[in-house]
Amino acid sequence: MMSASHLEFTEHPHRRHNPLTNRSVLVSPHRAQRPWQGQVEPAAEEQKPTYDPKCYLCPGNSRAGGKQNPKYDETFVFTNDFAALLPDTPSFEQQDGADQDLLKVEGVKGTCKVICFSPRHDWTVAEMSVDSLIGVVRTWTEQHRLLAETDYIHHVQIFENKGQAMGCSNPHPHCQIWATEFVPTEPAVEFENMKSYMQRKRSNMLLDYLAIELKAQERIVCENNHFVALVPFWAEWPFETLVLPRTHCRSLQDLDSNQQEGLADIYRRVTCRYDNLFCCSFPYSMGLRQPPTDGKDSYEYCQFNMRFYPPLLRSATVRKFMVGFEMLGEPQRDITPEQAAERLRQCPEIHYKHKN
């Protein structure tokens, strides 16, 4: 633990800086003992069938507009029927005027895709095999390559929302890809800070950070030969995790077959530990961070990573809300990242549903 005069990280309020975003998070460990009388989430889990004839993601079923899914047996990719972005949006040039500095607008092009992970309606990533998840990683890689080769696509965001608490409208295991002609705000900030760090230090920010974490060990959750999962020092969500490659990799395109298997393995292990933490289907938003595809830079300062943002705080029924001070001031957390990592380390990697 970092030394500080009269400051105990497990007892006293303190702020932690996130070098990726150049923002801070307020940590208030003494609040973890406060009684909870607020909203609780339903604890009982619905028993899902292996195939749901009403699910628009299951094999052979119809989707919006009468489109029909093939009877797929591995991964299945299609363009989102309700896409947030369209490839044929007309260009828009804002006219000169006195209000142009305050009322700016631009038309944007893009496309949105859905990737079904498995034909099994009842599975989640935590319950899938590593072999099945290797197929998911390879599908990510192929879709990223195809979209990166599209002239107007400058950024490809792959993400998974799991659970109703994260706004997921369908429990069938799947993720989304939003590919845009612009670089979204959050990654743009991170890329700029990575670039600035390399210019100052002549080294890669996240590789340097990983070296610190591997030496300290207190925030490591699990690891394999190619990836390390940890609760970042600056984590905002209670059980947030960051998955980092051990070597320099900018994007999925840099991963060889062994690293693809390593990513699939760590994906399953992290999500399995999540489910086992409160013996529930643990909700989260997962995202892959990869550099722009605009060809304007080599992006050597970027480091591929996977991050999980889960909302649950104390149990399967109590979640963290980012409201009030978090919306108006800065993010705040109660349980420390070190305590969160310790709890996740103690979780087994055999899914609670499969224990004898």
Classification by helices and strands: alpha+beta
Query: What's the helix count?
Result: 6
**Total number of strands:** 14
Morphology:
globular
Mean pLDDT: 92
Proportion of strand residues? 15-25%
Straight-line N-to-C gap? 38 Å
Share of helix, binned = 10-25%
Q: Give the SSE string.
A: EEEEHEEHHEEEHEEEEHEH
Radius of gyration based on Cα positions: 21 Å
- List unreliable stretches of 5+ residues: none
Strand line-up in the sheet with most strands: 3-4-6-5-10-11-9-8-7
What can be said about the biggest beta sheet? 9 strands, antiparallel
SSE arrangement:
Elements: E1 14-18, E2 23-27, E3 76-79, E4 110-116, H1 130-148, E5 155-162, E6 174-180, H2 185-201, H3 205-216, E7 220-223, E8 227-230, E9 241-245, H4 257-278, E10 284-289, E11 305-309, E12 312-315, E13 318-319, H5 325-328, E14 332-333, H6 337-345
Question: Would you kindly provide a written description of the structure presented here, covering whatever features stand out?
Answer:
The protein is globular and about 65 Å long. Strand 1 (14-18) and strand 2 form a beta hairpin. The model has no long low-confidence stretch (mean pLDDT 92). The protein has a nine-stranded antiparallel β-sheet, sandwiched between helices. Strands 1-2-14 form a three-stranded mixed β-sheet, with no helix packed on it. It is of the alpha+beta class. It has helices spanning 130-148, 185-201, 205-216, 257-278, 325-328, 337-345, and strands at residues 14-18, 23-27, 76-79, 110-116, 155-162, 174-180, 220-223, 227-230, 241-245, 284-289, 305-309, 312-315, 318-319, 332-333. The protein has six helices and 14 strands. Helix 1 (130-148) packs across helix 4. Its EC number is 2.7.7.12. Zn(2+) binds at residues 55, 58, 121, 172.
